[in-house]
Each structure stands twice: as structure tokens, then as C-alpha cells.
Design goal:
Blueprint lengths: L1 E6 L10 H10 L2 E6 L4 H13 L4 E5 L13 H12 L6 E8 L8 H21 L3 E4 L4 H7 L8 E4 L8 H6 L3 E4 L2 H4 L1 H9 L5 E3 L21 H12 L3 H16 L8
Parallel strand pairs: 1-2, 2-3, 3-4, 4-5, 5-6, 6-7, 7-8
Helix pairs in contact: 2-3, 8-9, 9-10
The chain binds zinc ion.
Length: about 260
């Protein structure tokens, strides 16, 4: 049984293919997917998908750093209100995400400030609602590590963490988790990350519909990639595939506090 802890099911590229993606997940024994969001609109869609595919799809709602510069006026406020009101739908919203910082999308000073403001607002929301966060940390892991201790968070998932490697001990000692996707099959760097993350702190993801290279070139990204990702993790860590899959499912349940029944 496999886990896709980070996929953008609300992306327009999946659009009317959701039933097909759900069927592919089931065929490949992916028993749980976390539908991540980018803004208010995709937060609404992620939640709708979680309602429509109960037990298989869970929602992570929030504002992605790439979207901060295009936020409509009052969108931040409306998103916070929407998430706060919807959280009563117990068990469907399992995290605030995808949130974080990305300096490539904040070259101007005012953009950087705005990104920081939105991220801090999302962290406050996660603290208030007692939800874990799913964090985007490209070129910003060090800065994010400096910010997180200001908040009492239920848990942190560092999605597609790619470095610097020397931050990994600090991340795992905090009790945070790291999720890796298709690059673990073909990227030396991501294999190095996986080597340094204890299996008890690791999750798997596709980040679909993002496209990949290597054996995934020209293939649309779906949860069908997850078994190959688990196989690659198993090779890197020299632990059997079934043990890797089992531990990842347990990690999922521990971090997001759901689906404990899957483990029995
Ligand atoms: Zn993502």
C-alpha cells in the first residue's frame, strides 16, 4: 500500500481526468493522496475532491509562494476565512499547504516582504487550527528553519527537500518529515537526501502534474509513479520494498493523524 503525500489534483492539467487519476491510484495500490493547493480557488477544489473521494483523497489548503504576487486584494483574508470555516469538516483537511518561501519568485523587495507576510499568516493559521504544514523550501530551507520555531506546529512535511544536505539533521531532529518523488529514481542529489533521512522521517510524493526526466520523460505524472519511487528508496536504503512501503504508510498516519485503520 502506497502514499502520494503531495499532488496537485486541483491543477487544470488534471481537470476532467480526476476519475482516471483515482482509478490509476487504486490500480497501483496508492491508498492515500494529499491534494495540495496554490490559492483560494484551488483550496476550494482540493476540499471538493476530498469530499468526493473520501478516505482516498485528503486536502491540504493554503497559498503557495509562487502565487503571492498575483493574489487578488483580500484573497489572503478570504483564504484564511475559508480554511477556518471549512476545517469543521473533520478529517478532510489534514494540513496547511503548499506554503513556504521561494526567492526566485520574490526578486523585488516588496515581493519578498509579501511572501514572508503570507507565509507567516499561513503558519499562524496552522498553529491556530492545530494542523501540520506542507512546506516548499526551494532556496529557502535555511530561512524557513529560522522561522518555524516561532510557531507551535503539529508537524512539518518538507516537500521535495533538495538541500542543503547539512540542514537535514536539524530538520529530522525537530521531528519533521521529508517527502521525495520521482527524482529519487534518477537524481544523485535526491538519492543523497534519501540516504540521509531516517526511514521513520520519510514520505513519498509525485508533485503531479509536474513533469520529470529520466525514465519518466514524456510520461504524464500520476500516482502510478509511486511504486517506482518506493523501489528506488528501497535500493538507496537497502531495506526491502515492503518494509519501506509499510513504514511510509505509518509515517503518513503519524504525521497527519489520519487513516490509522489502514495500518491494521
Ligand atoms: Zn507542489
Amino acid at each position: 500500500m502506497f502514499v502520494d503525500a503531495h499532488i496537485h489534483l486541483s491543477d487544470s492539467q488534471y481537470g476532467d481526468r480526476i476519475d482516471e487519476i483515482v482509478a490509476i491510484a487504486k490500480q497501483n495500490e496508492v491508498v492515500v493522496m494529499v491534494a495540495n493547493s496554490m490559492n483560494l480557488e484551488t483550496s476550494k477544489l482540493s476540499l471538493k475532491l476530498a469530499e468526493e473521494h473520501q478516505g482516498l483523497v485528503y486536502a491540504a489548503l493554503g497559498i503557495h509562494p509562487w502565487n503571492v504576487n498575483q493574489l487578488a486584494s483580500s484573497e489572503l483574508e478570504l483564504t484564511v476565512d475559508f480554511i477556518s470555516e471549512s476545517v469543521a469538516l473533520k478529517g478532510k483537511i489534514i494540513a496547511i499547504g503548499e506554503i513556504g518561501l521561494d526567492p526566485q519568485y520574490a526578486k523585488r523587495k516588496e515581493h519578498k516582504e509579501q511572501q514572508g507576510r503570507v507565509f507567516n499568516e499561513m503558519l499562524q493559521l496552522a498553529e491556530r487550527l492545530a494542523l501540520p504544514i506542507i512546506v516548499h523550501s526551494r532556496w529557502s530551507a535555511q530561512e524557513i528553519l529560522g522561522i518555524l520555531p516561532s510557531y507551535g506546529l503539529e508537524g512539518v512535511l518538507w516537500h521535495w527537500f533538495s538541500g542543503p544536505l547539512d540542514l537535514l539533521p536539524r530538520i529530522t531532529e525537530r521531528g519533521d518529515y521529508v517527502s521525495e518523488g520521482p527524482p529519487v529514481v534518477f537524481s544523485d542529489r535526491i538519492q543523497e537526501v534519501v540516504r540521509h533521512v531516517p526511514l521513520e522521517r520519510l514520505l513519498t510524493e509525485t508533485d503531479g502534474p509536474v513533469r520529470y526526466y529520466g525514465p519518466f520523460k514524456d510520461k504524464p505524472t500520476t500516482p502510478a509513479f509511486i511504486p517506482e519511487i518506493v523501489r528506488a528508496v528501497s535500493e538507496v536504503k537497502k531495506i526491502t520494498e515492503s518494509k519501506v512501503a509499510e513504514q511510509i504508510l505509518r509515517n503518513f498516519a503519524d504525521l497527519f493523524d489520519v487513516n490509522k485503520s489502514l495500518l491494521s
